[in-house]
Each structure stands twice: as structure tokens, then as C-alpha cells.
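hey
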């Protein structure tokens, strides 16, 4: 996670409507996007889940979308989750949490003027009810730092009725080690990632300090009584997570590794094959632009791959 001008520019472009139109219309885009997003329909999500589960990997599904200011769109996002949970449950894919869902509160209406927070919370509750009926879990994604307090507050409220709901914490934020301490209690599920947004130095570590923070946060979570979810593709952090789990006498079912769809699939398989729990985050839907730009920003090689595709057409 290196702070380069390219990364910063791509993350700024992730918020630009004009560039969004151009990228979405570029003929090469579809092919490259497919590497990170298996498809747009519920059928695509169900198929990708079945394929991953057939190789011993678990899944968390993300119906793509964020920052909506349209109530109908927020309701459609809730409905997409209800549909996919029903389909997966009917297919026997959710039992015991083998396939769960990840929610972005801003996709469920958190930013709507007036009652946005209340509306998003209500939508999240409806998804949680469907998840409970399907014998699985829900994890709240974490967005940029302006939403962290609201997301953690929503987590507290939702956990009163659905204590198995988990949340993402981002190691790049200065506050996160303290948030890990708050959430390292029994029954708590924390997905620890580095963080994918363009955050200022006033709130976030930069460069190698992000990795150092990740290790400090991991130490807190692995020593605690909760259920750590190690969301990273970084070989060094994966090794440290394994060593900390062993040090604290954790068995392989008391934590899990998580990676994004299409990123380091061989490593995903290696961890699953050696008996560790590996969950793949599977985004699907048409609103892939923001997600895709964050993936490009993470790795300059991905930008080269994309531009080469444009140039050869
Ligand atoms: P880092 O970016 O340093 O990459 C380490 C290595 O992984 C690279 O050297 C490369 O080999 C490989 N790699 C990483 N990204 C790649 C890419 N895009 N393409 C190809 N190879 C790549 N963030 C957030 O802010 N809020 C959230 O809710 C979530 N949720 C989430 C869930 C899950 C399950 C995961 C795995 C990640 C997230 N993230 C996230 C994203 C996260 O914050 C982070 O941006 C990425 O995981 C990349 O960070 P790494 O830890 O992989 O390290």
C-alpha cells in the first residue's frame, strides 16, 4: 500500500462522474473488470459462489454500489441482498456461514438527507433477518473515514438483535488500534484490512506505517476473544497472522483469512488446502466503477494491464 501520485490520482478519479462515463464505455473495460467482478446478475453471484465453494473456499458477497442519494436505489440494493440470500440458501450454500454477505451502509441509504442513517440501519436489519433465516452472517464494510463513527454506531445497534454481525476495520486509520481493543471481545467478528480510500495524513498512516499498524491491530485481535478475519493479500502479513494465531493457541476455526475475488487465487487455494479457513470477497452487480478504480489504485501493474488493453484495440 504505497502512497504514490498515481494511487492518489486513481482514488480521486474513483469519485469522478466524467471519468466514470469514459471508463465504463471503453471497449476494453469489460474484459479487465471481469478479473475482479465475476458478473452483474444474481445468477453470476450464485455461480461464482458454487465454484469457490467447490474448491473449499468460503464466500462473502457484495452487491456493488456506494454513496447512493436515491431512496429507490437503496431499496433495490436491500432487495438484491434478500434475493441472493434466498437463492443461496435454497442451493444449500449458506449453512454455517459458508457464504455470507458484506454491506456498505452508504449503498443502503446512509447518506440520504434527513433520515439516511435510520433508513440504512433499517435496510441492514432486514438483510440481517434474511441472513439469520439462511443460517449465515453479515459483515459491514468500512468506507472513507467520514463514515467510520456512523458505521461503528450502526454496528452497536444492529448487534443488539444480531450479535453475530461483524465489521471491517482499516489499519491505516490512527484510531483503529483502539477500535480493535473495543471489538476484541467474545462473539465479535472483525475483518481487518489495510484500507482502500484516499485518506489524509491527519487521520491515516501512510506507506510502511500502515503495515506496522496492521501488525499491532492483528496482535490485539489475535490475543482477544473475538473472531479475527485477516483480510489481506500481503504474504508477510499472512505469515505474521499465522504465527500470532499459533502463539495464542487458536485453532484454525477460530479465525479466517480473506482475499478479494481474482486476486492471488493460487494463494487462496494454498491456504484452503492446508486446512485454514479462506473466504473470498465476491463483488457483483453493474455499479463496479468505484470498486474497480480502488483495485487499479492498489497495484500499478493493474493499470498497465488496463492501458495495454486500451492501446492494442
Ligand atoms: P497490498 O495492497 O500491500 O498488497 C499486497 C500484495 O497483494 C501485492 O503486492 C500484490 O501481490 C497483491 N495485491 C494486492 N492488491 C492487488 C490488486 N488490486 N491486484 C493484484 N494484486 C494485488 N478496504 C476498505 O477500505 N474497506 C473495506 O470494507 C474493505 N473490505 C475488504 C474485504 C476483504 C475481504 C479484503 C481482502 C479487502 C478489503 N478491503 C477493504 C481492501 C483493503 O483495504 C486493501 O485495499 C486491499 O486488500 C489491498 O491491501 P493488501 O492488504 O492486500 O496489501
Amino acid at each position: 500500500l504505497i502512497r504514490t501520485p498515481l494511487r492518489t490520482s486513481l482514488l480521486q478519479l474513483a469519485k469522478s462522474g466524467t471519468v466514470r462515463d469514459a471508463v465504463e464505455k471503453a471497449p476494453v473495460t469489460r474484459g479487465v473488470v471481469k478479473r475482479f467482478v465475476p458478473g452483474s446478475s444474481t445468477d453470476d453471484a450464485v455461480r461464482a459462489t458454487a465454484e469457490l465453494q467447490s474448491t473449499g473456499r468460503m464466500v462473502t458477497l457484495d452487491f456493488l454500489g456506494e454513496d447512493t442519494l436515491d431512496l429507490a436505489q437503496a431499496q433495490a440494493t436491500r432487495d438484491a441482498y434478500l434475493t441472493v440470500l434466498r437463492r443461496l440458501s435454497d442451493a444449500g450454500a449458506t449453512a454455517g456461514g459458508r457464504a455470507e454477505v458484506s454491506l456498505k451502509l452508504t449503498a443502503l441509504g446512509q447518506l440520504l438527507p434527513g433520515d439516511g442513517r435510520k433508513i440504512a440501519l433499517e435496510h441492514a436489519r432486514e438483510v440481517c433477518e434474511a441472513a439469520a433465516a439462511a443460517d449465515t452472517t453479515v459483515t459491514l464494510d468500512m468506507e472513507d473515514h467520514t463514515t467510520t463513527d456512523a458505521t461503528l454506531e450502526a454496528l452497536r445497534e444492529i448487534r443488539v438483535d444480531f450479535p453475530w454481525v461483524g465489521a471491517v476495520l482499516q489499519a491505516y486509520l490512527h484510531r483503529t488500534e483502539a477500535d480493535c481493543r473495543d471489538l476484541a471481545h467474545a462473539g465479535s467478528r472483525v475483518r481487518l484490512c489495510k484500507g482502500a480510500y484516499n485518506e489524509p495524513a491527519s487521520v491515516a498512516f501512510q506507506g510502511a506505517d500502515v503495515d506496522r499498524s496492521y501488525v499491532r491491530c492483528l496482535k490485539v485481535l489475535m490475543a482477544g476473544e473475538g473472531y479475527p478475519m485477516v483480510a489481506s493479500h500481503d504474504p508477510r502479513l499472512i505469515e505474521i497472522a499465522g504465527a500470532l494465531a499459533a502463539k495464542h493457541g487458536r485453532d484454525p476455526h477460530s479465525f479466517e483469512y480473506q482475499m478479494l475475488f481474482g486476486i492471488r487465487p493460487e494463494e487462496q487455494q494454498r491456504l484452503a488446502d492446508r486446512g485454514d479457513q479462506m473466504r473470498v470477497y465476491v463483488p457483483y452487480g453493474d455499479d463496479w466503477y468505484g470498486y474497480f478504480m480502488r483495485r487499479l489504485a492498489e497495484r500499478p501493474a493493474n493499470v498497465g494491464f488496463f492501458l495495454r488493453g486500451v492501446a492494442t484495440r
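The domain at 38-287 is CATH 3.20.20.220 (TIM Barrel). The two ends are 31 Å apart (CA to CA).
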